[in-house]
Amino acid sequence: MKRNARLGLRFFVVYAGLYLAFVLLNAFAPQTMERISFAGVNLAVTSGMGLIVFAFVLSLIYGVMCSPEDQGNESERGGRS
Question: What's this model's pTM, rounded to 2 decimal places?
Answer without folding.
Answer: 0.75
